[in-house]
Amino acid sequence: MGMQYKTGSQTAWPIELLNLLDIHVCVNYSPIDFDMKPQPEQKSSPLRGTLDLLILKALALEPLHGVGISQRIHQITNNELQVSYGSLFPALHRMEEKRWLASEWKSSDSNRRAKYYELTKAGRKQLAIEEREWERVVKAVTAALSVN
Q1: What is this structure's pTM?
Q2: Is 80:61 a contact under the CB 8 Å cutoff?
Q3: Percentage of the chain with pLDDT > 90?
Q4: Residue 148: inside a domain
């Protein structure tokens, strides 16, 4: 069975890759839900840190609350990717424990209490590491896909 692709933009994303990342794909503004069972943490998987990369990148500009992070990821991926809250909030907690993020309770724009996250110095260093690793993975997958 060959790979299935989500198309409709300049990039074709293998459905299997998106499933591994637990990311929703928006087609005509309607999310396609790829539910996944939790997988044990594996340091050897190059895809493991992809959600971390998207979160770190979303927070590189300014502190945001969880919903704002999800919206920013949707925005910076040209409305192609939407991270589910079921994946986002555990990742934020894990990244806080690693001290990549700091958080503070504040009032949101709608005057509701929200937990705002911001990158720490360690988080900025991790963002640079994650960006380099992603570029390495993209080159490897691109090379594999170009083989006839």
Answers
A1: 0.70
A2: no
A3: 64
A4: no
